[in-house]
Amino acid sequence: MADNPFLAAGMIEDPRLFVGRKDELNAIASRMKGDQPTSINIVGDKHIGKSSLLYYFLRTWEQRVLQNTNRYVVIYLALRGVDCQTETGFYEAVAEGLLSQVQGWQLQLRNPWKRKPLNRQAFSDAVKEWKQQGKLPVLCLDDFESLLRYPDKFDNGFYDNLRSLMDSNALMLVVASRKQLDVYANEHHFGSSFFNLGHTIYLQELTTDEAIELSRLPSRSINGAALSVDEQNCVQQWGDRHPYKLQLAGYYLWEARQQGKPIKWAKQQFKQQLTKAKSASKGQQWQLWLRWLFWDLPVRLGKIPKFIGGTVDDISNWIIGLVILLLPVLVLVGVVPWNELWDFVRDKLGIK
């Protein structure tokens, strides 16, 4: 049986099946070729194609840069992997990716990355040594939000170091995220200038021409489009220029043909999968909201005494903060008198 050319989920790895985004790809390449490379933040909603864009750029950047290609070493790194849950793990993953693109005999390029431990200083020194040798590491970092889950591992110092390397034209980053980086800086109280990257590209829906091109994806085993003209029209109508919806529609229309089922069946499967995706997304939003309400917010409230002079750990902060959060509610429903609330706050803040 022939392989389905449409991808209902995940990243497009076969460059023959990638469609559109020419302006975005050329924008990345143009900022990479300058005397002062400009790091870029790729911003877009879930399923809009950020991962596929970064990976396709990895596979095709030489076709866009053309001149002085020996100057660059481009890698793709998915930050959601277990290797990137610590700062050292991140540096080692970057080193592994870069060394995979360097020939074994090029010891002057390989040796800087073999220092142990590969900590912040060693990473910075390796990048600077590459600059002296005329090499620019270009890191395509996917799923940036993963780093934000470990604020104790990736602090302002980590981000400041990356920013310093970028400012000295020794490193270029292409960072994919759902929100603009400075929004995350405000949400997570980061003060590093890293979060003000030089350029932002907002990934939107495909153009009409790109959507038509996607509906005409070729079969992997035979020449010609995988879908009939009528099926291609269905893809365009159901998908409404959104990359994920277009791929999903094409996927089920192709499956329907292979299984001898009507288009009505494909449309039903398409709608069911969209509903599941929306439900999963809402579930994740609720989990994030609950974490903020019952952990992040209480911890921050609980740190008020610490700023004034107290010394408490995060568990104590959480307990105190949760009490501060719940006490006004208890007062409003008449469970706790106002004078007792004031006595508690005054005691915790050290007010006499």
Automatic annotation (TrEMBL):
It comes from the Bacteria. Keywords: ATP-binding, Membrane, Nucleotide-binding, Transmembrane, Transmembrane helix. The chain crosses the membrane at residues 318-338. Coiled coil: none annotated. One of its GO terms (molecular function) is ATP binding. This is ATP-binding protein. It comes from Nostoc punctiforme FACHB-252.
